[in-house]
Specification:
mainly alpha, Amino acid/polyamine transporter I, two-stranded antiparallel sheet, 1% strand, AA_transpt_TM, transport, Amino acid transporter transmembrane domain-containing protein, membrane
């Protein structure tokens, strides 16, 4: 009985909930999904009960239906990635998600009388809404009131360990992203900590290595368009794992999901290494002595950062972190540098490849667009602007520091300048807010595997804490920011951004592709495989050499 009350209080939106008796009449898109889901359910039941083969739902070979994509692991992918990428924004513009914003507003309303100005500034839209937008938002709010926690006293007494950590959501037609919002979301995804290592990439590969950055940008745009073609090929495809499911079945879905989650996990490790390096620069003499054990500044700050970020992974509402993670971290020229450094090209390949590791989120952004025909243009704008930022940071950083450039150019900044300290502190603050948003998708996918009677808040806290501690142990074991980034870029990003989109495109569309599309996909996959092999081998070799 307690479970049913919890479901009425905080309803999780999914395809299975379209028939909820308290919901308002669904939109055309929702009705179409429901019809497709009903057809898929009928097919499954018919095949399972041995119904007459003449039934229109019966097929000799089971094909994935729209409902099957949302009923297999990981079901939480879109919800968690939307939070990470800040896909949609009725209240906080492009930052935050619709359901989380509504729940956050219902919470802050109770404090509005005490701190009206502060709260009103927090929930004020970043983009000024038009009259039509306000009318659409009001209609969407009325049609989705059932998402909010019930105000009935009999339904408010829900045990803490029975409440879901997050509420899933489905973007309504009235809450789609505009062109500008989608561009900002895309840049927010692409331009992360990778920008700190672009000067180091020039040091490794030379000035001509920037051609690799431009080549990767062009190929990333093309493979992003291929993902769009895959999403449009079948009903119900919304995320990267869905594409893998449509292309290679359940095995493809699971394999792609694992690759995407490992990439996010590696980013969390990078965050801890980054924090440790930059805080050690600010406080080089800091240490901690416990008995006969002395922790140097790097180890001490890595542990301290872990202690700080761990509580953020326990939060039920991550919209505040999604808002704060929008901070941008960026900061004179004499050095000429090397034109081409062949021995360092493999490391440069990995570092430049890491810069375009946003393809796991692009399907979510595409699914959230008001006008999906604009996606190629949006993707081109995102990648072009990101490439300009990467190249600009690379050129300026390398011109300033030359062959002394370190794996993060913030480590080269003068220690006696105030502006340098501001830049380093900004760099330090950003990963702290992004860490929880990055680890939550992996955590939620693992939480799905827990037995229903074990999905309690206390158990989930323990699981998330264990994940955080594991990233700390790896960060302390492999404290090489640039080499770890090159390894991630060579191995994982090459798969996610270049190899898998082409493979999925050819597998899904099959005979519908033209010969020049086959040639282009084959070329990209060959480039991706070669770069992955060379970059991974070189990165692992350099990491091993660092211990000897």
């Amino acid at each position: 009985m307690r479970s049913s009350v919890s479901e009425r209080s905080l309803i999780i939106e999914s395809d299975d909930d379209d028939d909820h008796p308290q919901s308002q009449p669904p939109s055309a898109a929702a009705a179409r999904r429901r019809r497709h889901h009903d057809q898929g359910s009928g097919s499954d039941s018919d095949s399972g009960s041995g119904s007459d083969s003449s039934s229109p739902c019966a097929t000799p070979r089971a094909e994935p239906t729209a409902s099957s994509y949302t009923q297999q692991w990981p079901q939480s992918y879109r919800q968690s990635i939307d939070i990470l990428s800040s896909v949609q924004s009725p209240n906080l513009s492009f930052l935050g998600t619709p359901t989380l914003s509504r729940l956050s507003n219902s919470f802050t309303n109770s404090f509005r009388g005490k701190t009206p100005e502060i709260i009103s500034n927090l929930v004020k839209p970043l983009l000024r809404p038009t009259t039509s937008d306000e009318q659409q938002r009001e209609e969407a709010r009325k049609s989705s009131q059932y998402l909010l926690p019930s105000r009935k006293p009999s339904l408010q007494q829900i045990p803490e360990d029975q409440k879901p950590l997050l509420v899933a959501h489905e973007v309504s037609p009235h809450q789609k992203c505009s062109y500008t919002q989608a561009v900002v979301n895309g840049i927010n995804v692409l331009c992360g900590v990778g920008i700190l290592s672009t000067p180091y990439a020039i040091k490794q590969g030379g000035w001509l290595g920037l051609a690799i950055l431009c080549l990767f940008a062009i190929l990333a745009w093309y493979t992003g368009v291929l993902l769009r073609r895959c999403l449009d090929s079948k009903e119900g495809l919304e995320t990267y794992p869905d594409i893998g499911h449509a292309a290679f079945g359940t095995t493809g879905r699971i394999a792609i999901s694992i690759i995407l989650y490992v990439e996010l996990y590696a980013c969390c490790i990078e965050y801890l290494i980054l924090e440790s390096d930059n805080l050690s620069k600010l406080f080089p003499n800091a240490h901690l002595t416990i008995g006969s054990l002395t922790l140097n500044s790097h180890v001490f700050f890595a542990i301290l950062t872990t202690i700080i970020v761990m509580p953020t992974t326990w939060l039920r509402d991550l919209s505040c972190l999604s808002y704060l993670s929008g901070a941008v971290d960026n900061v004179g020229f004499e050095n000429e540098g090397t034109v081409l450094n062949l021995p360092g090209i493999p490391i440069a390949i990995g570092l430049y490849g890491y810069c375009y590791s946003g393809h796991g989120v692009f399907p979510n952004i595409y699914s959230s667009l008001k006008n999906r025909n604009q996606f190629p243009s949006i993707l081109f704008t995102c990648i072009a602007l990101s490439t300009i930022l990467y190249a600009g940071a690379a050129v300026m950083g390398y011109k300033m520091f030359g062959e002394a450039t370190k794996s993060q150019f913030t480590l080269n900044l003068p220690e006696n300048l105030v502006v340098s300290k501001v830049a380093v502190w900004t760099t330090v603050a950003n990963p702290i807010t992004k860490y929880a948003l990055t680890i939550i998708p992996l955590s939620m996918s693992l939480e799905e595997l827990l037995p229903p009677n074990q999905q309690k808040y206390s158990n989930i806290m323990m699981l998330r804490s264990a994940l955080v501690v594991s990233t700390l142990l790896i960060a302390l074991s492999v404290p090489f920011f640039g080499l770890v980034m090159a390894l991630v870029g060579s191995l994982l990003t090459m798969l996610v951004t270049y190899i898998l989109p082409c493979a999925c495109f050819l597998a899904i569309l099959k005979t519908k592709v033209t010969w020049h599309q086959v040639a282009a996909c084959s070329f990209i996959m060959v480039v991706g495989v070669c770069c992955a092999c060379v970059g991974t081998y070189s990165s692992l070799s350099r990491i091993i050499q660092s211990y000897t």
